[in-house]
Specification:
heterodimer; A: mainly alpha; 11 helices; about 0% strand; B: mainly alpha; 5 helices; flat; Brnchd-chn_aa_trnsp_AzlD (chain B); transmembrane helix (chain B); transmembrane (chain B); AzlD domain-containing protein (chain B); membrane (chain B)
């Protein structure tokens, strides 16, 4: 394991923690609100380890929703990870199955976003240690803040809007990802469609927006290739 | 809204969601080991995933409709615009966060109450 890459990952994830810490608190508090205790909170945060899905499942559990609905809701929310998995997989092709399983278990929005940004811009920096630096830090902080949410039950002053730090980090990563015409179109379309479909249930807007964005990027690339071939 | 599901049912639920979520995460990461080369068509599409996904994650956080009024949340929109400009000029995460949060707080706590 490349220690300096691991440390770089830990350093890069620190600003994101500003948003993760209140989120983890909320996941802990939601567990109590659903009528569950510390073991279930820890179980959810370690076994599922997916904030949005945990919150949705807890909300439905608290309302005694049918079990199948709870499972399907959580999975649909997590479907976006299929895209992360596909996008990041080429960088981890040569790893052992055991390491791949660890990579997959730790895959989150934040870990994906930071790692793909680094691997995309720097071909020499494909060390999985960087990914683990980011992802393991997120995991530890997520567990600690979930527990703190259950035990303390205090709410972070909501008006400060600390969770707003998370989209700001993603924004800083988005701008360089829009590196040419087709990727810019993919971003603009993906963002616009996600806003329009934000009202859809199950976080589906994200999935729809991202898919439309990828499709738009592909079409733009095909169209521009066609016209430059014609020249 | 305490649940009436029993302990074993809850734990079963946690395990089922956990295992299936892991399979979603593992899907392509596991699959690509068995392919010598990634099909070029898939590779082409994957190039657009970071921009499309990040935009779909980000933009709805900045352009959010105020509940009830139907208007746009001005503080978040302003913060998003300023942060986007700063991100474009600096490509620096911490500077972007600083600019975005400062704008959010200035608009939310100074400008909006004064209007």
């Amino acid at each position: 394991m490349d220690r300096s890459e691991f440390r770089q990952g830990v350093r890069d994830v620190v600003p994101l923690l500003l948003g993760i810490i209140p989120f983890g608190f909320i996941a802990g508090i939601a567990t109590v609100n659903a009528g569950l205790g510390l073991p279930e909170a820890v179980g959810l945060s370690t076994i599922v380890f997916a904030g949005a899905a945990q919150l949705a499942a807890l909300d439905l559990i608290g309302r005694d929703a049918p079990l199948a609905i709870i499972v399907v809701t959580a999975l649909v929310i997590n479907l976006r990870m299929l895209m992360y998995s596909a996008s990041i997989a080429p960088h981890f092709q040569r790893l052992s199955s055991r390491t791949k399983a660890a990579v997959a278990y730790l895959l989150t929005d934040q870990a994906y976003a930071l790692a793909i940004a680094r691997y995309r811009t720097d071909d020499s920096a494909r060390s999985v240690a960087y990914y683990f630096g980011v992802a393991a830090t997120l995991w530890v902080v997520w567990q600690l803040t979930t527990i703190a949410g259950v035990v303390l039950g205090t709410s972070v002053p909501e008006s400060l809007g600390l969770e707003f730090a998370v989209p700001l980090v993603f924004l800083a990563l988005l701008v360089p990802a829009m590196e040419d015409g087709p990727t810019t179109i993919a971003g603009i379309l993906g963002g616009t469609v996600a806003v329009v479909t934000a009202g859809l249930p199950l976080n589906l807007g994200l999935l729809v927006g991202a898919s439309v964005g990828v499709l738009a990027g592909l079409l733009t690339e095909t169209a521009t290739e066609g016209s430059s071939n014609g020249d | 809204m305490a649940t009436s599901y029993s302990g074993p049912v809850i734990w079963g639920l946690i395990f089922v969601i956990g295992v299936l979520t892991f399979l979603i995460r593992m899907s392509f990461i596991g699959l690509f080991g068995y392919l010598d080369e990634i099909p070029p068509q898939i590779q082409r599409g994957l190039r657009f995933v970071p921009a499309a996904v990040l935009a779909a994650l980000v933009v709805p956080s900045f352009v959010t409709l105020e509940p009830g009024t139907g208007g746009v949340a001005v503080d978040k929109l302003a913060a998003g615009i300023v942060a986007a400009g700063v991100a474009w000029r600096t490509e620096n995460v911490l500077t972007t966060i600083g600019a975005g949060m400062t704008t959010l707080w200035v608009v939310r706590f100074v400008l909006l109450p004064a209007v």
